[in-house]
Automatic annotation (TrEMBL):
Keywords: Repeat. Residues 110-185 form the ACT domain. The keyword DNA repair does not apply. Binds amino acids. Transmembrane segments: none annotated. This is ACT domain-containing protein ACR. GO terms for molecular function: amino acid binding.
Length: 419
């Protein structure tokens, strides 16, 4: 097919103010392409309102209608297009973006920000990093005895320019402007071997691990997983598998509660199962419920007819749709600690904008964060990303109160789900 590289991705503004933007990806196909596209869209603070997928196994056509999750989000549409182009499996793209081999991970940098503490500061730094197109891989935040805050962010650069002194200086200058008089110092350098201790896997208590990683959430909600009235909606989740309608494909008909990343969660699960979408339609949300129809095949081009395979796929899809984020609180000595966990893609990629959403929730609640970290955790069958926040006392939310903890967990979950 003769097509100019710039036409592989097209982004058009809606006809009327407030109408969704239309994102079209027309490129060679690969298993998991839809997941990769949706992940990038989600990372830009966009919510997919509807979508269509079609492929002949060699060439893929994806159309997504998307809107900013909030009115305060400013989207760099040109940058979004470039990142979507980089996700297209095309030889032309690798030469255009001067990419390294696909097996080479991006360079990891350590950003050290030392500043005076205040409520909401951690989110302001996180927001600034998003504006700079710097992706947070790990975090270590510590409060010093004299009330200052030491932030260690292990980051990668979406523009691949942090190796230049100009880009590093621009990043530190932007952070200095955002923090103003609260900023004491800002250093940005390539992460060295001494940083390995901050990247280790986390250790959790048995009780917290059971709360976060339990497989019984679909059958029995744990005490802190059913706090919000919105959680009653999860009972809407239903999946129908049809192997008779199409001679070459298995049809998945999904009805689920709508949340801002549900399309990504569905496609992430299919990618992890190495399943290809031949045709798909994502219907608009109606009264908080969304329908998704997908004609799928295994990577070898065959239908999914084995009962055990169908049961396993449906179980993982329900878990991904209904409980993509796990949120709980636990005691840490005399203090309270907030835990948020999400599954990591088999490719090793974490979930976008989680740290941003959690710190935003805590800022809106007026709760200070004494320390925070992002680490990975291994269970018997999955790798998880775990976010830990040691919280400060608040007059409005006394952390010894179970009611206050309930409200904190509820607010954080609602923000993560877009409710």
């Amino acid at each position: 097919m003769d097509i100019a590289w710039e036409d592989l991705v097209l982004i058009k503004q809606g006809k009327e103010p407030g109408d969704p933007w239309v994102i079209t990806v027309n490129c060679p196909d690969k298993v998991g392409l839809g997941c990769d596209v949706c992940r990038i869209v989600l990372d830009f603070g966009l919510c997919i309102t509807k979508g269509d997928f079609c492929t002949d196994g060699y060439w893929c056509y994806i159309v997504l209608w998307a809107v900013p999750q909030t009115s305060s989000i400013t989207v760099d549409w040109e940058r979004l297009k470039k990142l979507l182009l980089s996700a297209c499996p095309s030889f032309l793209m690798s030469s255009y973006f001067n990419q390294k081999s696909s097996g080479s991970p991006p360079l990891l940098y350590m950003l050290k920000v030392f500043c005076l503490d205040r409520k909401g500061l951690l989110h302001d730094v996180t927001k600034a990093l998003c504006q700079l197109e710097l992706s947070i891989e790990r975090v270590k935040v510590m409060t010093t005895p004299d009330g200052k805050l030491l932030n260690l962010f292990f980051i990668t650069d979406n523009t691949d320019l942090l190796h230049t002194s100009k880009r590093r200086e621009e990043a530190c200058k932007h952070l200095d402007v955002v923090l103003g008089e609260y900023c004491i110092s800002c250093e940005l350098q390539l992460a060295g071997p001494e940083s390995a201790s901050h990247l280790d896997f986390s250790t959790l208590s048995e009780a917290v691990a059971e709360e976060l990683f339990s497989h019984n959430l679909l059958r029995k909600e744990a005490s802190l997983q059913t706090l919000s009235p919105d959680m009653d909606k999860v009972n809407l989740g239903a999946i129908t598998v049809d192997d008779f309608l199409s001679p070459a494909h298995t049809l998945l008909q999904i009805q689920c509660v709508d949340q801002k990343s549900v399309v990504y969660d569905i496609l992430r699960t299919l990618k992890d199962f190495n399943i290809q979408i031949a045709y798909g339609r994502i219907s608009p949300s109606v009264e908080g419920s969304r329908n998704v129809d997908l004609f799928i095949q295994k990577a070898d081009g065959k239908k999914i007819v084995e009962p055990d395979s169908q049961i396993a796929l449906c179980s993982h899809l329900k878990e991904a749709m209904l409980h993509p984020m796990r949120v709980t609180m636990a005691n840490r000595g005399p203090d309270a600690e907030l835990f948020v966990a999400n599954q990591v893609e088999l490719s090793g990629k974490g979930r976008p904008r989680v740290f941003y959403d959690v710190t935003f929730s805590l800022k809106m609640l007026g709760i200070c964060v004494f320390s925070a970290e992002i680490r990975r955790h291994l269970t018997s069958d999955r790798e998880w990303e775990v976010y830990r926040f040691l919280l400060g006392e608040s007059q409005e939310f006394p952390l010894a109160s179970s009611r206050a903890r309930t409200e904190i967990v509820d607010r954080v979950r609602r923000t993560l789900m877009g409710w």
